[in-house]
What does this fold into?
Amino acid sequence: MATVVRLDAPGCVSIAEEPDPPLHATGVRLRTRYSGISAGTELTQYRGTNAHVVKTWDPDARLFVPGRPEVAYPVVVGYEEVGEVVEVGDEVTAVRPGQVVWGVWGHRSTTVVEEEYAAARVLDPAADPVLGIFSHIGSVALNVVLDADLHVGETAVVFGLGVVGQIVAQLARRNGARVIGVDTLPDRLALARDLGADVALDAGEGRIAEQVRAATSGRGADVALEVSGNPKALHEAVRSVAYNSRVVTAGFYQGEARGLFLGEEFHHNRVDLVCSQISGVAPGLAHRWDRRRLNTTVIDLAVRGRLSLRPLVSHVVPFTDAAWAYDLLDTHPERVTQVVLEFPAPDGYDHPRGDA
It folds into this structure.
């Protein structure tokens, strides 16, 4: 049986069991080692505010429509996993037991994937296996930077320094930008500085747009990247950019966008507002970039030490503490960045690399 972390209702987390899927000839069985909890989409499911749990998404019309919610509780969530190959089908030749594979299969102790899927996602054996949980959330951040169309020497302001924002800030600097990070939490501001942000501004002190303009000879930022999901932050991002400049929004806004005044700087400064969302890539890049390339690029940068992801992990807890972990993310965001659930090895089992 597979053990799964399940949301039975908003705010209600349980540990359940499901039958293990059978292993077919080209299948690869993975035993999960780590699974990260998303403080964005997953938290909206935990809170019951996600549009998919209150409305129906029509994929043909690409509209939310009235009707039965698309996602019904109970639901197994999670999309930040890394696991170990423990068994392969008779026809599998590309992977072998003991290899570590990253991907998306939810907060569950075991899963079966196709050989092709596993072979394309084998983690470097010298790497910290926890890095594997960042393949998807890191792709979200990379997509934001691609949508920003940054250039060397430009100034980028990142609003929201949670996990995605911290990765966005690092990638923006790798793109040659001067980076200003904005948040209300002192620990996140300090972390951004430690990871290379040129300036970190406390949004709680106000006047962010004025400070950005003062730091750019009155011009304003070349681009703002809003990843907090707070409409007030989006409004300040609009205020912070130069005339005819771009604001990229990746925040998952919930409910009404109160605090956003589109008749002010947005209108008078001809601000280009771009949505970055992981289901697609910017039209000008779609012929070269896809989800798999986003994933592998982030993991490769992390393994080569060009992207610092391990410092983002603030908590590694047993998967049995999942309810506590969700509550922590929901009620005390100032205490946490990335929470990782650890799935233990069976009794008497030793990891091939001995890195637990």
Remarks:
- Confidence is low (pLDDT under 50) at residues 352-356.
- Residues 313 and 338 are 5 Å apart (CA to CA).
